[in-house]
């Protein structure tokens, strides 16, 4: 029986191209994910200040973030809406919540209102009333916490 001479064998090198490609795809995915979470927050909204504000204990199963500017325009997912024309958007979110993994009913959707500090209280109340017309009952307000300057 003849054995192959071990000195003639080549050193095999691994191809790292798929590993590098996967790394870049993961980086792109996380950058995109960060971008979507920033869309919900309108930077031109200056939140009112509060010393008594506490951060949320846990993230709700399904949330809708509504940004309200001083002129009464509601900014949702980067688009501006008048309060009176918000019903189709809210209905779409209710449908999305119902089809989500947790099947969240309308009354359990967390409506997070980020109103500008100069927004009249009556405008905020009209927004709440519009959400209540669509059977949304769980409201949370965002403010700037003065304790964490």
TrEMBL record:
Organism of this sequence: Mariniblastus fucicola
Bilayer topology annotation: Single-pass membrane protein; Single-pass type II membrane protein
Protein family membership: Belongs to the ExbD/TolR family.
The protein, known as: Biopolymer transport protein ExbD/TolR
Subcellular location: Cell membrane
Top-rank taxon: Bacteria
GO biological-process terms attached to the record: protein transport
Key word Transport present: yes
GO cellular component terms, A-Z: plasma membrane
């Amino acid at each position: 029986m003849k054995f192959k001479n071990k000195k003639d064998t080549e050193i095999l090198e691994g191809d790292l191209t798929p590993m590098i490609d996967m790394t870049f795809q993961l980086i792109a995915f996380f950058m995109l994910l960060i971008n979507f979470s920033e869309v919900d927050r309108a930077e031109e909204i200056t939140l009112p200040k509060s010393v008594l504000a506490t951060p949320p204990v846990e993230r709700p199963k399904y949330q809708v973030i509504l940004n309200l500017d001083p002129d009464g325009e509601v900014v949702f997912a980067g688009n501006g809406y008048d309060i009176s024309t918000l019903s189709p958007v809210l209905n779409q979110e209710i449908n999305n919540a119902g089809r989500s993994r947790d099947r969240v009913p309308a009354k359990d959707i967390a409506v997070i209102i980020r109103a500008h500090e100069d927004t009249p209280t009556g405008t905020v109340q009209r927004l709440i009333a519009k959400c209540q017309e669509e059977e949304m009952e769980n409201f949370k307000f965002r403010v700037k916490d003065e304790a964490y300057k």
